[in-house]
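[step 3/7] fold_predict: job queued, chain A
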Amino acid sequence: MTKKAVIVFSGGQDSTTCLIHALPKYDEIHCITFDYGQRHRAEIEVARQLSRELGIKIHKVLDTSLLNELAISSLTRDSIPIPSTKSSENELPNTFVPGRNILFLTLASIYAYQVHAEAVITGICETDFSGYPDCRDKFVKTLNKAIELGMDYKLRIETPLMWLNKAETWALADHYKQLDLIRHHTLTCYNGLKGSGCANCDACNLRAEGLKNFLENPTDTKNSLKLKLQ
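[step 4/7] structure written:
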């Protein structure tokens, strides 16, 4: 039986690392990128380029621009400035797009149902999650149960990075000999700049700090990664 997975694929560090992690585990992988009118629209073309480079035969870009009309965020409104530092612990950053992961994971699950995939894979991570409530493990597990009930279909929402810090995520890319690809060709920056990005937004700061920690302590980081993946 063909093992199939659907990956929510933005072309950023996390989703691309999930893709390279999934490639040896599944016979057929479908990538889905969502066009929701995001501010950093360059990520859509980056996702296309990366999926081609990694040999993905089926990559769909789905129009979910309705989200842009409903969700007010600095990632959906040019008039709202991107913050250069993280908000206080009790305050959601204005980069939070309400409902985004609810919508994306639900649509990806509907697609998985149609193509008979056993898993939906997402780069959601609670360790470095910027305070987003829809990046928590509890949220994913609860939504997974609701989707299975609502479609009467056995489906796993996989979150390979859920308990990894950013240094360990870099170590995972290095494990698959794809560190340079992730470092130079993915787009994580909230201001839409590929690679190292703007070096000012929270996404770039998390990414850079994680890379620094990995390069300074590669052996320890790889060992901690191995323990978490067992």
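[step 5/7] annotate
The longest strand covers residues 28-35.
Strands lie at 4-8, 28-35, 58-63, 119-121, 156-158.
exit 0
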